[in-house]
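Run log, item B.
One chain of 228 residues. Sequence copied directly from the ordering sheet:
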Amino acid sequence: MKIKDLCTSERPREKLLARGAGSLSDGELIAVLLRIGTRQNDALQISQQLLKECHGSLSELFSLSGEQLCSFPGIGPGKACSLLSAMELGRRFIQESNPRDRKPITTSRAVYDLMIPQMKALAHEECWILLLNDASLLIDKVMLSLGGHRATVLDERIALKKALEKSASAMILVHNHPSSSPIPSKADIEITQKFRNACEACSIDLLDHVIICDDCFFSFADEKTFRP
């Protein structure tokens, strides 16, 4: 059904203002971002078709690049920028924390909960380090590298430089697998040991290496995968 065929109170923008954003469906929220449609389809129809193309999954939608969005009928650079901006704001909102609510990071689950907003639905690999103080409180999180679909290059020297600059006493290595499996590869195991040896030489504890997928994770510390 087209927006013009809806009663005024059921049109996405009017509905949002009257009842709040929570009353809108995913398609209606996207339509508000798109604002206008084309001669063939209005904003609501385009948003519904876009969601259908993404199998109704916001995670799939969030993983689309600007180029991929622009290839969709009815979405040009302006609409793609609106969608990408909204997605990034959502990510930043989830990541934003109150310093008064800081808690020690002492479990792999805590690492996953901290990083999944940053890594959910990524179509490429990213590697981050979490820098901790003596009380296991987060000092900083730093992206080490951004790679392709299957791998990213990690340099332990850059990680150690960042840790020493921040006077961190411990580090946790984190990266994602765009696939649905967090099981470490041979390269993952080798780089973990390489990082561990480098950290030991600088009196910095490598507490864990956590591999994240959208709905699961693997912890080297939990699985005792560190080599002696």
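Observations after the first pass:
- The chain has a mean pLDDT of 89.
- DSSP finds nine helices and five strands in the chain.
Flagged for discussion on Thursday.
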